[in-house]
Task: inverse folding
């Protein structure tokens, strides 16, 4: 029997499986976790029995004395697809390649779920001028940054925002613009299409629902921007979400909304957000919440695989050793570098400072996380939350609900990876 690059011989055993594993049961699923390897399998009860025999070193022939060949093949395929071996190498994402620039704290809207609580523009003299942004972009280029995400507030509210974007483009940065779309019109859409590699626009339902969240009249402006930008196809992403009070209406409207986007251009990417961070007028709605479950179910029924309603949240071998602190360059509207958008104190704009901020708060430094089998998938609880609760960023244990959410993410991601493999074979 063979799969991928490994050839299995019936008289031999499967060698090289991870030395340290832990098995976690969740309803009808058995999750086998390779501790410290950021790799996992999701098995049925029957498949787990097969895996245990393989793990004990029995030959394939010996396993076939007790189980059907089709079931053994299913387990071997999962092992191969997930590269579930001790020799598999881990990867840590290059957290120093992307800088998120908050061009302005100001925004022309006051969305109920805004995690930045953005609103009317602050005093203009406090924010960076375009000349200072030009200088900072050049400095970022020298540090090895490859991608710039322009964020806000509403970044296009910034005076000469387009000039700043063009400057970033001239320095060969990959550019992503995140916007509410209300300031994009026939006079400027061609420029944003030309100088941005990706544009992400937020849309929170049909007109009544969207306007309830973002303000009266905003839907028409945002939809007009989407129409104007639709020719760029997969370089345009529509980020769709809602808030708990609009949940019932959202599930009804979602199929209609997705069809309207698809009719504009089937290549437009759609991102459905099944979770919420704490924002201006909403509390966080995480994995496993009623909100999350309803959104995921509605997305699954409405999309028919036209969007990433079940994204791969966990990748095999990709170690998460941080909550996000120090994993991206957050540059505020004053030109100060923060290790997180929630951080209060800036650090020097250089790689050494970012690396130090990252390493000093690594999950390996969080005592309560050291013995947890899920630490490589988790990164630990928010360091800011830890500090609020205990006075120390490196103290604070997660809840059982947090662990449950990680398990759910592992199961969902595993299913997505398996589905992706099947699609590639077609």
Result:
């Amino acid at each position: 029997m063979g799969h991928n690059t490994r050839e299995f011989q019936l008289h031999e055993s499967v060698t090289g499986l991870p030395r340290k594993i832990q098995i976690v049961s969740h309803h009808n699923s058995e999750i086998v976790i390779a501790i410290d390897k950021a790799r996992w399998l999701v098995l049925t009860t029957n498949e787990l029995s097969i895996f245990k025999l393989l793990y004990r070193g029995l030959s394939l022939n010996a396993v076939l004395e007790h189980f059907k060949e089709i079931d053994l093949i299913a387990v071997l395929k999962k092992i191969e697809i997930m590269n579930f071996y001790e020799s598999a190498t881990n990867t840590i994402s290059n957290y120093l390649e992307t800088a998120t620039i908050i061009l302005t704290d100001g925004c022309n809207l006051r969305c109920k779920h805004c995690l930045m609580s953005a609103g009317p523009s602050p005093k203009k003299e406090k924010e960076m001028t375009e000349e200072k942004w030009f200088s900072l972009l050049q400095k970022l280029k020298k540090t090895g940054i490859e991608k710039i995400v322009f964020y806000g507030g509403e970044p296009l509210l910034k005076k000469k925002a387009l000039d700043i974007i063009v400057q970033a483009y001239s320095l060969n940065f990959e550019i992503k613009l995140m916007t509410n779309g209300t300031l994009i019109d026939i006079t400027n859409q061609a420029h944003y299409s030309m100088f941005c590699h990706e544009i992400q626009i937020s849309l929170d339902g049909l007109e009544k629902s969207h306007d309830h969240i973002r303000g009266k009249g905003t839907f028409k402006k945002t939809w007009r921007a989407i129409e104007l930008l639709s020719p760029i196809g997969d370089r345009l992403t529509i980020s769709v979400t809602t808030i708990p009070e609009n949940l019932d209406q959202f599930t009804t409207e979602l199929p209609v909304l997705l069809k309207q986007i698809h009719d504009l251009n089937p290549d437009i990417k759609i991102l459905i957000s099944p979770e919420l961070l704490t924002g201006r007028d909403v509390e966080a709605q995480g994995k496993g919440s009623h909100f999350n479950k309803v959104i995921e179910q509605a997305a699954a029924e409405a999309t028919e695989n036209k969007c990433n309603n079940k994204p791969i949240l966990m990748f095999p071998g990709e170690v998460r050793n941080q909550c996000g602190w120090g994993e991206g360059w957050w540059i505020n509207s004053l030109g100060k570098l923060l290790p997180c958008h929630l951080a209060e104190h800036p650090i020097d704009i250089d790689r050494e400072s970012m690396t130090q901020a990252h390493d000093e708060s690594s999950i390996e430094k969080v005592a309560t996380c050291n013995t947890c089998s899920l630490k490589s998938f988790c990164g630990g609880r928010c360091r800011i939350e830890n500090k609020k609760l205990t006075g120390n960023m490196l103290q604070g244990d997660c809840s059982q609900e947090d662990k449950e959410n990680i398990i759910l993410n592992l199961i969902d991601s595993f299913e997505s990876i398996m589905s992706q493999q099947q699609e590639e074979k077609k």
In short: The chain is about 40% helix and 15% strand. Confidence is low (pLDDT under 50) at residues 305-311. The two ends are 20 Å apart (CA to CA). Residues 2-81 form one domain.
